[in-house]
Amino acid sequence: MTRFAEICEAVTATTKKLEKTALVADYLRALPDHSTGIAAVFLSGRPFAAYRETTLQVGGSMLWRTISELSGRPEQELTASYRQHGDAGAVAADVLPPNPRSVLSLAEVQATVERVADARGPSAKAVLLRELLQHATPLEAKYIVKIISGDLRIGLKESLVEEAIAKAFDRPLNVVRRANMLTGDIGETLQAGRTPPID
């Protein structure tokens, strides 16, 4: 998860579309097979593939309350951080206590997000969310919160992820786009793209 967060930071830092695409392509190419599909879905700014109708039912107030509890910071400090950043994920990175080493993988984050979706009632969801963020570094927490809220805000749309897949695995972009349109799953599209043919 650390590398995912670092790539998101790098993508945010550039306004150049080709540079964003190259960063994501290099990242996807370097990932082990079992992580690439998860990364592609997360990079598209969603917790789940587009075709799925699964919802997390985790609102901003639950995210805010969890960040507040884990940070131990007073409310006025959290509010000041939000005014500065305008984003709950960035607030998490700003106020959560340091976690010297990451133990989270993309697969573990995905598994917990699935459990949050399956959990019944806000209290059960809040417990899972808290456990996940407790194991994250502040930078990882930033992007976990962004994924859960469904908006990475890093200047990366799904069309750019498609371009990165095409670039990473030397596939025609129109074929990648068609596959993604048919499956509604950018992760599945990427997995298919690793081994031709994709269509």
Q: Indicate the structural class.
A: mainly alpha
Q: Tell me, what's the shape?
A: globular
End-to-end CA span: 30 Å
Name the CATH homologous superfamily of the largest domain: DNA ligase, ATP-dependent, N-terminal domain
The largest pleated sheet is described as: none
Portion of residues in helices?
55-70%
- Assembly of the depicted chains: single chain
Count of the separate structural domains: 2
Name the CATH architecture of the largest domain.
Orthogonal Bundle
CA radius of gyration: 17 Å
Q: Can you tell me about this structure?
A:
The two termini are 30 Å apart. The chain has 199 residues and is mainly α. The mean pLDDT is 92. It contains twelve helices and no strands. Helices cover 68% and strands 0% of the residues. The protein has two domains: 2-45 and 155-194, no CATH class; 60-149, DNA ligase i, domain 1.
Layout of secondary structure:
Layout: H1 2-12, H2 17-30, H3 33-43, H4 60-71, H5 75-85, H6 88-95, H7 106-118, H8 122-134, H9 138-149, H10 158-168, H11 173-183, H12 186-194
Keywords:
mainly alpha, DNA ligase i, domain 1, 12 helices, 199 residues, 2 domains, globular, 0% strand
